[in-house]
Design brief:
Layout lengths: L2 H27 L2 H17 L9 H20 L7 H7 L7 H12 L2 H12 L4 H8 L3 H28 L6
Helix pairs in contact: 1-2, 1-3, 2-3, 3-7, 5-8, 6-7, 6-8, 7-8
Length: 173
């Protein structure tokens, strides 16, 4: 495929799906600036790449680049994700508490990256199993197995959180 056509396709896909790509990157790094860097690096890699062979698969091809860029970032940094002040203020907006959501986020963060990837792509990015397999470069059955194990681990983790919350004493009564 010629470079101008590839550039046009990439631009179109990124412009129409930028929020999804950002959310995917953010799901890995939990930092707004790092997520933006990952998306930017992914765009740069996509433009330089010669691996796009199917014009109909640009979106899943770019998802794959974002996932690999995020995983590379995490491997390079090998750091604990610490919430920024802005993140803490956002979560403590004084409105409705979302403890269940925070518990789910924490449980997702504790999953091994291979399992987290399939869950995020399948349920948060709403990709089909076949698309997840394509993005991650895995066999469909491998994706199904990882998804099954990830959901089982999440269920166990969420049940432990629920039991812990029920056992916690209530203050102020």
């Amino acid at each position: 495929m010629n470079k101008p056509r590839q550039y046009e396709l990439i631009t179109d896909v990124v412009m129409h799906n930028k929020d999804n790509f950002y959310r995917l990157a953010y799901g890995y790094v939990l930092n707004p600036e790092d997520a933006l860097d990952i998306v930017q690096d992914s765009i740069h890699k996509a433009i330089k790449s010669d691996t796009l062979h199917d014009e109909t698969a640009v979106k899943s091809w770019f998802y794959k680049i974002v996932v690999h860029t995020a995983l590379d970032f995490l491997r390079r940094r090998k750091r604990v994700a610490v919430a920024s002040d802005a993140e803490l203020e956002y979560r403590d907006s004084g409105q409705e508490d979302h403890y269940r959501d925070m518990d789910l986020e924490k449980a997702l963060d504790e999953l091994p990256p291979d399992y987290r990837s399939v869950v995020v792509l399948r349920y948060f990015e709403d990709l089909k199993i076949e698309e997840v397999a394509g993005v991650l470069g895995l066999n469909v059955n491998t994706v199904k197995t990882r998804l099954y194990k990830a959901l089982k681990l999440l269920r166990i983790e969420m049940e432990e959180v629920e039991v812990h919350n029920e056992e916690a004493p209530e203050y102020g009564r």
